[in-house]
């Protein structure tokens, strides 16, 4: 604790399971990351570094590799070169500290599972195949549900929720997983205006708690105000930095307009 | 005509009844996996490809329970892995490759069995012959059922995550590849054990209908496994008792009874039935 106090800007993670000391910022560093699908180069030389307590928008045209970047950060796609360092070490894919939240369209909403069952899945990385689901696990699930305001909906089947509630249910699972990094694929897509605003507010709260959020995003109007940092990609990296500095008309044009130039 | 109690006094009938119970339960249990995986058609394909496997095994090693089992497993592997190989080495997708492979294999199996001088009639492989079961058959069925239930129960936690999000489960640390192979092996074993009861054409019904019915009744994936098992056993035993007085074939009756259960759930399920208000919430 004294070390944490010495680091006056440090935000403590909310690590509900206990047993984790957070005395300095957790850094996520991506160095020269490339990803290939057979012969096609999907991502080329991505470089950025960020840390817990921040939120980052991942911006780029369709096919720019946004989902690919998120999935490779989640360890779901092998990298074809470069490094992903989490807390100074190469990332292993089954780290409970990294949570990946899929696009809405990738989820089978008719699956026979309730909100609570979904959130309980988040305990799997800690429980493994057979370890007893304990009172401690139940408490964590309870807190995750409560913090996403899902307590009253916990016994609903997941298709019987609104889009915003569904998004929150998946965030609750990431919280139950005690994830430090949340990778979200188009979390705002398909939500109505109030739900989008609600989600933006939640993002801020999660960042204040000391989590790192990286979300692919296509609405250029809402980047400012909702995110701290931005990375613009178009297979290669166009720009990275704080929104105020990197999200410039010139960079946006470089990410999107090369498409037009190539077509002409 | 002797009464059902006279009939049950026969060891043959008691063995058939036990077989219905065990095979029905194991297939119903595994059907939860098949339904959640949305793999019903693939199971149909694989079950058809068991026939040529049986035929070749009989051709090579003569007819025995073990040669039939081995042959069936090999056939399933060849069609299953062969279709993956074909789709990877050509521009065809896996379903297309499978469609060509399994019908070709099935046709070959028909010809071999027709021309082979086997005691067992072709019909029995196609449509099952539960009345002809020996004690050893029963033990094999029991062993396979036990393996299936124990394996799927032990793996339930990672398995449900895998079934819910096959492409993402790995990020939660679920051993996707291991689950893939294990569940494939269990499915094939159970499918083979069901051949005797319902034959290779109807077996897909026994391995889909029970959990498909429960799927319309519950929001709990675990209930799908146990409910599917219980329904599969109940349906098979009911069919056994119905088939005797009616003089129907046991295998066809099993599938008809399970189909009837399904239609009842489809129509009257309180939450997801035809007349339910909440139907179609998406």
Tags for this model:
heterodimer, A: alpha/beta, Rossmann fold, globular, disordered N terminus, B: 282 residues, mainly alpha, 78% helix, 0% strand
Structure description:
The complex is a heterodimer of chains A (264) and B (282). Chain A is built from ten helices and ten strands. Chain A has 264 residues and is of the alpha/beta class. Chain A has a single domain, classed as Rossmann fold. Mean pLDDT of chain A is 83; it is low at 1-12 and 14-19. Chain B is mainly α. Chain B has a single domain, classed as ABC transporter involved in vitamin B12 uptake, BtuC. The termini of chain B are far apart. At the A-B interface, strand 6 and helix 4 of A face helix 8 and helix 11 of B.
Summary, kept brief:
The complex is a heterodimer of chains A (264) and B (282). Chain A has 264 residues and is of the alpha/beta class.
CATH architecture of chain A: 3-Layer(aba) Sandwich
Helix content of chain B: over 70%
Number of strands of chain B: 0
- Spatially, the strands of the biggest sheet of chain A line up as 6-7-8-3-9-10
From the N-terminal CA to the C-terminal CA of chain A, the straight-line distance is 60 Å
Strand content of chain B: under 5%
Number of strands of chain A: 10
Rg of chain A, nearest Å:
19 Å
Q: Any low-confidence stretches of chain B, pLDDT <50, length ≥5?
A: none
- The number of distinct structural domains of chain A comes to 1
């Amino acid at each position: 604790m004294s070390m944490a106090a010495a680091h006056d800007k440090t935000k403590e993670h909310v690590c509900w399971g206990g047993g984790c000391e957070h005395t300095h910022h957790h850094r996520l560093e991506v160095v020269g990351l490339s990803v290939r699908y057979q012969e096609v180069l999907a991502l080329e030389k991505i470089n950025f570094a960020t840390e817990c307590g921040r939120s980052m928008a991942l911006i780029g045209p369709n096919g720019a590799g946004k989902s690919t970047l998120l999935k490779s950060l989640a360890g779901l796609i092998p990298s074809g070169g470069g490094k992903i360092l989490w807390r100074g070490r190469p990332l292993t894919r089954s780290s409970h500290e990294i949570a990946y939240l899929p696009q809405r369209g990738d989820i089978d909403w008719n699956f026979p599972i309730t909100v609570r069952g979904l959130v309980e899945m988040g305990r799997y990385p800690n429980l493994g195949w057979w370890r007893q689901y304990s009172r401690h696990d139940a408490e964590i699930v309870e807190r995750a549900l409560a913090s996403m305001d899902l307590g009253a909906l916990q016994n609903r089947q997941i298709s019987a929720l609104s889009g915003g509630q569904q998004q929150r249910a998946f965030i609750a699972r990431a919280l139950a997983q005690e994830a430090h990094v949340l990778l979200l694929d188009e979390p705002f897509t398909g939500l109505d205006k109030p739900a989008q605003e609600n989600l933006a507010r939640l993002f801020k709260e999660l960042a204040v708690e000391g989590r790192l959020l990286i979300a692919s995003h296509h609405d250029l109007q809402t980047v400012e105000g909702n995110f701290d940092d931005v990375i613009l990609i178009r297979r290669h990296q166009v720009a990275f930095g704080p929104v105020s500095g990197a999200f410039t008309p010139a960079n946006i044009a470089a990410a999107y307009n090369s498409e037009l130039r190539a077509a002409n | 005509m002797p009464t059902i109690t006279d009939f049950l006094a026969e060891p043959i009938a008691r063995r058939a009844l036990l077989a219905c119970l065990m095979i029905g339960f194991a297939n119903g249990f595994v059907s939860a996996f098949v339904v959640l995986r949305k793999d019903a058609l693939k199971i149909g394909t694989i079950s058809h490809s068991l026939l040529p496997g049986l035929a070749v095994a009989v051709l090579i090693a003569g007819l025995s329970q073990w040669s039939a089992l081995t042959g069936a497993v090999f056939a399933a592997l060849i069609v299953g892995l062969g279709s993956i190989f074909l789709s990877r080495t050509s521009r065809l997708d896996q379903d297309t490759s499978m469609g060509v492979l399994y019908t070709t294999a099935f046709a070959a199996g028909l010809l071999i069995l027709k021309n082979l001088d086997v005691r067992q009639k072709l019909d029995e492989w196609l449509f099952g012959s539960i009345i002809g079961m020996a004690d050893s058959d029963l033990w094999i069925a029991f062993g396979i059922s036990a393996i299936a239930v124990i394996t799927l129960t032990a793996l339930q936690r990672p398995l449900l995550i895998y079934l819910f999000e096959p492409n993402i489960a790995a990020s939660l640390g679920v051993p996707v590849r291991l689950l893939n192979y294990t569940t494939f092996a269990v499915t094939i074993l159970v499918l083979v054990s069901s051949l005797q009861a319902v034959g290779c054409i109807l077996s897909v019904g026994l391995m889909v209908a029970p959990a498909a019915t429960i799927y319309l009744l519950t929001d709990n994936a675990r209930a799908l496994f146990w409910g599917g098992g219980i329904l599969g056993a109940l349906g098979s035993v009911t069919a056994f008792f119905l088939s005797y007085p009616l003089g129907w074939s046991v295998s066809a009756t099993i599938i008809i009874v399970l189909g009837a259960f399904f239609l009842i759930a489809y129509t009257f399920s309180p939450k997801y039935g035809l007349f339910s208000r909440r139907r179609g919430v998406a």
